[in-house]
Amino acid sequence: MRIVFKKNLIRAYIILCIPVLAYGQAPMNDSLQQKRLKPLLITSGAVYATSMVGLGSLWYSDFERQSFRFFNDNKEWKQIDKAGHFYSAFHISKSSFKLLKWSGLPERKAIFWGTISSFLALTPIEVFDGFSSGFGASIGDIAANTLGGALFFAQYRIWNETRIHPKYYFRRSNYAALRPELLGSNLGEELLKDYNAQEYWLSFDLSRFNAKIPKWINLSFGYGASGMVFANDQQNKQNGFNPRRHYFIGIDIDLNEYHSKSKIINTILYFINMVRIPGPTLELSDKELKAHFIY
Fold first, then answer.
1. Is 147 in a helix, a strand, or coil?
2. Is pLDDT at 26 greater than 50 in this prediction?
3. Distance of alpha carbon 117 from alpha carbon 111, whole angstroms
4. Are residues 66 and 33 located together in one domain of the fold?
5. In which order are the strands placed within the sheet that holds 244-253?
6. What's the total number of domains in the chain?
7. How many CA atoms lie within 13 A of 107 on its CB side?
8. Residue 149 sits in the same domain as residue 78
9. What count of Cα atoms within 13 Å lies in the side-chain half-sphere of residue 216?
10. DSSP secondary-structure letter at 222?
11. Residue 36 is part of which domain span?
């Protein structure tokens, strides 16, 4: 079983660092770009190097080194962790692209280097895992990372905008209390550790496909799972739990359609839009269909 909490904390830290690193790819062809990029390039390089050193020496030092190996965890946690990798890679790519474009990089290059930034952020974790006796590199994680970046890249190359938005949703479960050391002992830990409480959605901006459809309203498809106190189904069933998948279709609100004169408000809305806003939803689980007025 993979230890997920500290690993996810490290991933979250690197996610914050890499968009800054991406600035260093922009050309310095005028004074404005030089003023923006020079300090950012120095800072981003230092932050990235520090995060890599910390990743290797602080966390992975607890485990013995081994020859590089892969670890197949594709059947664990109903693949909710893979959905998390997909989600992270997409948003690292998109955030990096926006920063690069702001810095003056031509759009095509910003799209390319924005996508590459998710690879730079997430791949080192798998490399370190591969050499650590406590883990092993996951092909499933690498595939999910690649698909998340690819979804961003494909949309901007085809439509020059985002029409399909991966979103995150969290609803606290009762399972964390049964194994708090693994699933979280408080709300902050559960946000990262409790896969019973996490859902991942793809929100489709219908107005971008058909101008007659009102803006703000998206159609979203979600996936989640529950009944998981152990990583695999066999252990859960042996201990009396019922691991099951949940599928959703519902209405979502697209905050990207709102643009304020305030850059701060626009930035806040950008991050809020990474989360699925509750709305009317249909849920399918265990061949049972439920309708939720607000979910």
1. helix
2. no
3. 10
4. yes
5. 164-170, 198-204, 217-226, 244-253, 281-285, 288-292
6. 2
7. 5
8. yes
9. 4
10. E
11. 1-160
228 and 156 fall within a common domain: no
Domain identity same for 186 and 152: no
Amino acid 118 reads S
Domain boundary among 134, 160, 186: 160
Whether 219 has a pLDDT exceeding 50, the answer reads yes
> Which residues 6+ apart lie within 8 Å of 30 measured at CB?
104
pLDDT of residue 129: 80
259 and 132 in one domain? no
| Cβ 220 vs Cβ 236: under 8 Å | no
Query: What residues pair up with 225 in beta bridges, in sequence order?
Result: 245
Q: Same domain for 122 and 13?
A: yes
pLDDT confidence of 25, banded at 50, 70, 90? very low
Using the 3D structure, point to which of 136, 160, 184 is the last residue of a domain.
Answer: 160
Secondary structure (H, E, C), 11-28: HHHHHHHHHHHHHHHCCC
Beta strand spans in the chain (E): 164-170, 198-204, 217-226, 244-253, 281-285, 288-292
Looking at residue 75, what is its pLDDT? 92
Q: Kindly state the helix (H) or strand (E) to which residue 284 belongs, with its residue range.
A: strand 281-285
Asked whether residue 97 falls in the same domain as residue 184, the answer is: no
Asked if residue 116 and residue 78 are part of one domain, the reply reads yes
Residue-level pLDDT at 58: 59
Q: Which of 212, 222, 206 is nearest to 170 (CA)?
A: 222
pLDDT tens-place string over residues 77-131:
999 999 999 999 999 999 888 887 877 778 898 899 889 988 888 888 888 788 8
What DSSP element (H or E) covers 250? strand 244-253
Average pLDDT (58-72) is 75
Q: How far apart are CA 276 and CA 295, in angstroms?
A: 10
Give the DSSP letter string of 177-217: GGSHHHH-SSHHHHHHH-TTSEEEEEEE-HHHH-TTSPTTE
3 state SS of 282: strand
Q: pTM for the full model? A: 0.85
